[in-house]
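Researcher: First entry.
Model:
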Amino acid sequence: MKRIYNIIPASGLIVLLFLSLAHFSHKHSEVSAQTGSITFGMAGDYAAGTQFHNTITGMKNAGLNFVVATGDFAYSSGSTATTWDNYVLSTLGSTFPFELIAGNHDAGYLSNFTNLLPNRISTMSTDSLSKYAEQYYFDYPVTNPLIRIILLGPNESPLNYTYGQGTANYNWVSSAIDGARSANIPWVAVGMHKNCITSGTKSCEIGTAVFNLFINKHVDLILQAHDHTYQRSYPLRNATSDPVNASGCSLVTTSFNSACVNTSVGNTYPSSAGTTLVIDGAGGQSLYSNDQTSQNSFFAAKSFSSYGFTKFTVTATQITASFINNSVGGFTDSFTINKSSSGSPTSTPIPSQTPIPTSVSTPTPSRTPTPTTPAVLTPTPTTNPNPIYSFSDFKTAMQNYIVSTDSQYYPVDGKINMMDGVYILKHLTTQGLSPTPTVSLSFQPTAPYYATFYYQWYKNQATDGGYSYWSDHSNNPPNTWFSYYLPDPNPAVFDPASELYSNNDYNNFKWQAGKMKEAKIEVTISSWFGPGTREDVAFNNILNSFMGRVDNPYPKLRWSMYYENEGFADPSTTTIFNDLTYIQTRYAISPYYLKINNKPVIFVYSDANDAALMTQRWKDANTQMGNSFYIVLKVFSGFAGDPNQPDSWHQYAPAGRSGSHLPYSYFVSPGFWLDDGSAERLARNPTDFENAVKAMVSANAMWKLVETWNEWGEGTSVEPGDQVKLNSTTGKEELDPAGYLFKNTYIDILTRNLPPLE
């Protein structure tokens, strides 16, 4: 499908932009035909006992496309959380979409769950108020979606999302519902952990305002847990959603009002009958037995003694649902909602006495927007030399209406204006940018992450006017250089002058990116020593120029940083904060930067001599940043018991063939031979390396690390290369016929054993 936007720059010239929508695949296969059907499961309150195991096993046997887990997972922030995650992964599969929304027992330590069970559905919302497991929505399947599922966390301390009428979060929900209707998505469901009406033990903890917003907007399903029971309501309605039949119900509250329910229907009814509430807190934790008789009449079916989950099958015209009991012959319930002949309900306005402000901070994008032609602008350009990263950035922002009419370029305020578009159109040729991107700029890989460490300290005469790193240890390139090996980008020749490459050479980048794609590497962790360093200059070239070019062979490659200074000094909290601010404003805005739960990821190298102080500094600095970064620290003795836990951990130790700190990281190394005259510390052995790679692939680790891609001075590189030796007569390095000419050996091993790219 193509979209056309009219852009009028200051000169009055009308430029037509033809923007193609790009979809991308995930490790889990998503169905894509609205004429078919999808199936998903829902439950909450699992704990970690036998009934939890039975529920997850039942989900596995039900043939589901995904699961919505409505909070209260393991009831633990420690080792049980990892055990719980691993049971889900081992039963349902490492790429199965097990979509989380926080409960009151999870909200304080969500990363214990999201690290191993991240979002795996590619249509997750990306607006500024969306955050995985806290407040977000997704459409399923990708193409011609059948349902939008909106997940939120009302009053889950310490997340503190509130949904009073007219608040930003309330308006976000309203816009998300309206956006689904505008996009002609047949069904809308909202899900959360806590309740409002229930015949169990709980009170209205989410608030009547947002609960009635669901009914006002005529969502089809409300999915909850929290009460450790199964309950299914009659269709709910109020005077806003059904003014003819529910005029006597101004609001649905905990006090039963017969005008608020449609009891005339059986177990099969039209969608126009009202909104159906399903509470399934029977995932495995001890069940509740209390029966609030004052609210019984809201519910068509309920059970206080049955464990299980609810299965939903969705087509364009029907939802069928069944409670799947963990015990054969136990309580069951099923119901069917048929799409009313009038089609999806239109967007219902908020009651006039408290209208939604016209300036909603995070509007839900329509799938087929037709923006009006903006006024002619004459902005004053900023001094930013790189107004926008690529035509793809411009396209994505336009599609999502991230548009401003000020003079600030995109990297300044994160919004597009017309001059950004004019800039891109004028510089397509000179910057090598693509007007027809084939990869969505919102793409991010999902766990487990296959990553490699990358070094950007290389310069050469042809590109930079002199050598860097190759010349270390008193070497004189291209005659001698700092490595027992020579990179081999051109197998047909032995040419140190060209093969001693520069990271600032785009042709070298294309060679490396192509090899990373061939090796199925998803993430590159790039060495960084601070603002203005040679590594910083090279990283800027890659992220803000090379990745956006039309002939980049691997636009899905994502980049992170390896913060090296922690390993060579003890940077203060202020220094770390300043560096994070620099990274956030210069690099993290890029769509090519790796993000987890919308947080840019940064790895930290350390010597572990001040381990406890180091973790405290990084926690304090990230707190000052509003916890906006996803921090991955290097392990040390006793790291698991440190009170200042980061988001994740890794190990960097390429002098060993492999090593693991599960469930965080697993690394492999091809060899280690530092060019300092010492003996080879870890001999290159392809068989041993391949066995290590196979073990890494099968391991339950979030980070699967190849150490390294191109650390030539230490001899740990997997990119193609050959062993060399010094000819004492000529004083020059030359190929060593008796040495190891490994060429593409290690790339081939990775290609054979790593899973397909997303």
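Researcher: Second entry.
Model:
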Amino acid sequence: MANSRLAFLAATLCLLVHVAFGKGYATAGLSEAQQCRLQRIRATQPDERIESEGGVTELWSEDDEQFQCAGVAAIRNVMRPNALFLPEFINAPRLVFIEQGRGLLGITYPGCAETYHSDQSSGSSGERGRRWQGEGQQGEGGSRDQHQKVHRIRRGDIIAIPEGALHWCHNDGNEELIAVSVVDLNNQGNQLDQRLRAFFLAGGEGGQGRQQGQQSRRRQSGRYNSQNIFRAFDTEILAESFNVPIEIAQKLQQQSNRGIMINVRERMRVVAPDEDEEYDEEYDEEQEERMRRRRGPLTSQNGFEETFCTMKIKQNIDIRREADVFSRQAGRVNIVNMHKLPILRYMDMSAERGRLLPNALYSPHWSMTDHRIVYVTRGDAHVQIVGQNGQNVFDEQASEGSMFVIPQFFTSIIRAGNSGFEWISFKTSSQPMKSPLAGYTSVFRALPIQVITNSFQMSPRDAQELKYNREHQTFLLSPSRQSQSMS
């Protein structure tokens, strides 16, 4: 009798636990669905500004419904010449677009070899004769240095930074380095909450601090805290971990009001390739990657080194001759996906760079695979986005410096202004697919005439025009005579 009671209680407890967990999952699913019940999307500017000694960090509001729907955070960093962005890592994969300038970027992976070596006598390093970038021939005090690869970055580059990978950047050019990035917080690599979390090895909030969006800062306390991670550790344990004197450990923990971008007192000297050499290396890496794809899946026992350690992390998306879609009358589109930059397969992200000529159209279409986070780099355009109920959730001009989200399956159309329109679009899929409504690859071309005539109550002649009037164009549509005369 006692055993049967225990069995009954156990069964009841299991049922209650199952129901409780079921409700929890149902509630979570409902909450996520509510995040994309968008009534209105707006083209927005950053709402928070963090001043540092060497530049400015601007953040778009994560509380904005459109960014919550896409599950992303957006950042714009403006680095002054000779500034250093201090080493950090973040909680989700990050895709970066270099809008302006040039510089050096380092990304470190645990377990990868330190392939860049300085030569104390000659200043050369490694194969291909890499040398110290900056003045002088060797490091401070004439000491040797060795480290993981340093990349030359320039305007138009798309850079892939996996979650948890430590990275830093130095502006060694003569103009400001402007980098716009999107972090995919919904990615499975992030097992924390849906907030941007940055972890810095050094630095501290700048003397001028956060000058805008103070209310937003209170709501999102700690989303981009620039205090370094060493300061809370016990100093003696830290010193023992590195096997260094206490004084050195204290330097790791010291407070600073210089911010997350600092001015370098003297020109930095790091082992890095020349610009021409860097892009020669990229060509070689592309050839190797093609051969690797032909060979099929990796069979090396050291799979990690065969992937992350040697994998390309950047691709220039602004090269005219490499356009994926091109029209002399409408513009061009360049795409970087997992086929061009294989590391994106792991990050499940991609990017699109577009240029529309004055009054040209980006065909009405929807994305089958991803949310799109669109940042305007030049010009302006009339953008319309329509949701599932046929309601217009976005119907306004998008201008330079603004950002907006086109959710998955929402249909959009873009018409460039009189000065043209340029943008970069960050996507939450490594192999994005779009379904156009007009042009020779459109869904109307695929539909039988009778389906169109009966669906829209039109004549076969009208249906023929819908199917074939843009017969030689797709995605990028030249302006009609009527729209040209109106402009």
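Model: Note on the second entry: The longest strand covers residues 411-427.
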